[in-house]
Fold:
Amino acid sequence: AQSVTQLDSHVSVSEGTPVLLRCNYSSSYSPSLFWYVQHPNKGLQLLLKYTSAATLVKGINGFEAEFKKSETSFHLTKPSAHMSDAAEYFCVVRPNAGKSTFGDGTTLTVKP
Amino acid sequence: DTEVTQTPKHLVMGMTNKKSLKCEQHMGHRAMYWYKQKAKKPPELMFVYSYEKLSINESVPSRFSPECPNSSLLNLHLHALQPEDSALYLCASSQRAGQPQHFGDGTRLSIL
Structure:
């Protein structure tokens, strides 16, 4: 069985300050992990993926995430938020060759 | 611009109508997906096609009928839908099943 928990349903930051979106997972097998972003009235866009290579993963638009097996976490970070980062973010876990499970999402608000 | 194109972008239909949603990709991907997404919720997987064959049906009601005419096209035929079927319908593709997915911007469906 697998599950993914996004610990915050809403995160609000000021422009130029760091972003932290938290994701914990459980999986019976070594999983692949993904972060997707969804802007209003748009589809989902892949930000980054972890597939058992380097534990620190760099993605697009300055985002990165660190896989911590001991903490079963895959938190998403960005050093400095931009207004254009305001969106919904989904953490996704997929066991080896299995079906993907989506977290419930985190809404990121960026204040000017 | 997304590499997965969905048409139409918006669709309003009555409960007795028959309509189809279309999805097209030209990235050479051999897996294609249909998702349903309600407001403020993560996408829910409906169907997966792998090499033009239906590989996953997540117990979707028969009023939704998928079709994959070739490796670039995916259709979702709709008939006798219910008001609760109003949602954003997302199409996605990946090189192979289980790999990171590319999403279209979706069709927003409203059932009167």
